[in-house]
Amino acid sequence: MSVEDPFVSDELSFLFNHIREDSVTKTTSLGIDYAKRITPHFGVSIGSEYQNIDVAHEGSESGFGNLELGIKYQFFTSELHETILSVGVGAEIGGTGSKRIGAESFSIISPALFFGKGFGDLPDSAKYLRPFAITGVIGPNFATKSKVVTYVTDEATGETEREVEQIPTTLSWGITLQYSLQYLQSFVKDVGLGAPLNRSVLLLEFPMETCLNRGCSGETTGYVNPGITWVGKTMQFGIAAQIPINGRSGNHVGVIGLVHFFLDDLFPKSIGRPVLP
Fold first, then answer.
1. CA geometry: angle at 180 spanning 175 and 183, to 5°?
2. CA–CA gap between residue 57 and residue 54 (Å, rounded)
3. Which pTM value belongs to this model?
4. Which tens digits make up the pLDDT trace of 7-21?
């Protein structure tokens, strides 16, 4: 849910997130992301999220975050070994979101490598491991500004102070470990699971970000997200806890919810197929 998958596809996703970031700040967001195949292996995407930031005793602010654009090319696919590799570039367009919620005035460019591997090619002696799959992504995030300078005037004294915020380059990296109960039932052994577990996937995500320079080199933030998804023919539902890995990531557990539509299955002869064959 938090770690982008390596597939190029036609899909529409809504991602809900609620977390208390510290003792006084609660953040709630609803993101929307639309991905469209241009060719069978090349796609584009567009997305944004609406946020509400509630600070105790100071009130709350709401608004859209910056617009996010992306391209992705799936350059390697092995059905035999259930392996996919993709490359892509994402861009958060600075100045397109609301300043009330802290949307940045600068852009962030993020090239990335995506990978996915299923274990259906394991031998019979390890058949109960075949429903496992891992996916992941790794890539740097380059800001179009190295620092942001602001001037703050003290209302009491009238004096103006110059404040400088360093904007570091960071490295995003994340891994998911999945176990498909549907795969277990259909291709390994029918263990008698009924609905909805017979179409579910057990999920463990590790979305991480490490600072690379400008005073915070080596500092990592991230979460461990245990959850479950239900996968139907045309849509998917998911829910996960969001557990901070350290104090820099927060001190409270959040929740993530996903509603995902497979447009290629919903509209295979119109908006769900590639623009070019």
1. 135
2. 9
3. 0.92
4. 999 999 999 999 998
